[in-house]
Amino acid sequence: MYLLSLFLLLPSSASxxxxxxxxxCDYRFQGFAVAQLELPLFADGSPAxxxxxxxxxxPHLESFTVDTPGEGQAVRGWxxxxxxxxxxxxxxxxxxxxxxxxxxxxxxxxxxxxxxxxCVRE
Length: 122
Prior knowledge:
The structure is a single chain. The chain is mainly beta and 122 residues long. The chain has a single domain, classed as Lipocalin (Beta Barrel). Helices cover 7% and strands 53% of the residues. The chain has 1 helix and 8 strands; from the N terminus they run αββββββββ. The chain has one helix at 2-9, and strands spanning 21-29, 32-41, 50-55, 58-66, 73-79, 88-97, 100-105, 114-121. It has an 8-stranded antiparallel barrel with strand order 1-2-3-4-5-6-7-8. β6 (88-97) and β7 form a beta hairpin.
């Protein structure tokens, strides 16, 4: 119910209609849960301009800036683009890769910059 009310309160540049589904992604590093991202999607598959980030059980909203997907990618974008302390790249693949079907990338850290996960569309 909380997420549904967010859909109604937050506008999206992608469409004037409400999101029709949710891309829920769970990311793990060395077997431990790191983060969950919930990205609302519109009927045409385009993502909203915000994402719900859940860290250590605490949810908060961040901006989502769509980027052009590369070959084999379904969704590509940036969480908190332009905010150096929070900026994370997010890629969701059309088909599962060896380590999962999605990854988030923190380009600021030297080690462990890629965290793989699984996304499902609900």
